[in-house]
Amino acid sequence: MASGDLIVSFGEMLIDFVPTVSGVSLAEAPGFLKAPGGAPANVAIAVSRLGGKAAFVGKLGDDEFGQMLAGILKENNVNGDGILFDKGARTALAFVTLKADGDREFMFYRNPSADMLLTPEELNLDLLRSAKVFHYGSISLIVEPCRSAHMKAMEVAKAAGALMSYDPNLRLPLWPSAEEAREKIKSIWDKADIIKVSDVELEFLTGSNKIDDESAMSLWHPNLKLLLVTLGEKGCNYYTKGFKGSVDAFHVKAIDTTGAGDSFIGAMLCKIVADLSILEDEAKLKQAIKFANACGAITTTKKGAIPALPNEAEVLSLINGA
Ligand code: ADP
Questions:
Q1: What is the pLDDT of residue 303?
Q2: Which residues lie across from 83 on neighbouring strands?
Q3: How many CB atoms lie under 10 A from the CB of residue 24?
Q4: Per-residue pLDDT tens for 134-144?
Q5: How far is the CA of 200 from the centre of ligand 1 (A)?
């Protein structure tokens, strides 16, 4: 990819601790495995693994885990010029389990964690100004000072001409209330050129229990160029000013869906940055979504998010049925 095609992903990177055995509560778990995560970091690695140029902007603890995460970004060729380390606070941890009854149980160590302490003054403005795409979520909107850092980073990148990409990535347990989550997630809605939501997020944000064109279009705003609604094993619906439609998913044996959405949007951003006309050409857009669906599908076939993110050869072999 050309050197001007930088995708900058802003937000949190953390460690998920997942039980060594499945179907137990956090209290029952005999032990936990470390799984690096955080949607914006996953997206940066997804881009890089596909051969794109990615940078991650966020704050880690100046501790073993923070250094480990920065090392993972580096190993994956993600530009780390926007990474900061906090001397006082730890890298965020999330203990997460899927109980036998199918309920997900979370316990977060963010009291506060380093990512929440990123300040606007600390941002690497040159890096932000060099972004062709600026991608972000909503977890960085929850508390100050990170919220102000998020707002400033968006402003700087947008003023420099970056295409703005938003995946709200709803994590309800992190918000003080569902109302606040909905309100703050939507507070930056009209800044985005590209928005990706999952079916669950569509229901949450619209308050409708229908996943249809009408509910999706209720999220439309006049400056938006592309709205994507991902539907898990049912693929993806797309909406632009000029056309709308859907692209089927690939059939795979899903083992762990963590990171499928990050893999999907990372792939979309790679395709868009390489050819902006995708946003106006339906045939090209469908091809790009097909590629992104393949990325999402492959990511579900292995445990964890980062280890499961595909390279281009793996994607092409799924698409070509090899
Ligand atoms: P999120 O991780 O944000 O909830 P989804 O689960 O909708 O996002 O997944 C994103 C994309 O990954 C989907 O649009 C689809 O293309 C692909 N995908 C996800 N789950 C599966 C699955 N079980 N089988 C095939 N493809 C999947």
A1: 86
A2: 58
A3: 16
A4: 999 999 999 99
A5: 12
Q: Compute the radius of gyration of the chain from its Cα atoms.
A: 18
Structure letter (DSSP) for residue 207? -
- Is residue 136 classed as helix, strand or coil in its secondary structure? strand
Closest CA to 260 of 232, 284, 237: 232
262 is catalytic: yes
Cβ-count burial of 302 within 10 angstroms (0-12 exposed, 13-18 middle, 19+ buried)? middle
Pocket perturbation via mutation, ligand 1, pick of 202, 293, 306, 318 by most ligand atoms within 8 A of CB = 293
For residue 15, give both structure tokens. 């460690």
Question: How does pLDDT run across 104-133, given as a tens digit for each residue?
Answer: 888 999 999 999 999 999 999 999 999 999
Question: DSSP string of 209-269?
Answer: S--SHHHHHTT--TT-SEEEEE-GGG-EEEE-SS-EEEEPPPP---S--TTHHHHHHHHHH
What does the buried/exposed string (b/e) look like for 66-89 if buried means 16 or more CB atoms within 10 Å of the residue's CB?
A: beebbeebeebebbbebbbebeeb
Distance of CA 63 to the CA centre of its chain: 24
Beta-bridge partner residues of 58: 83
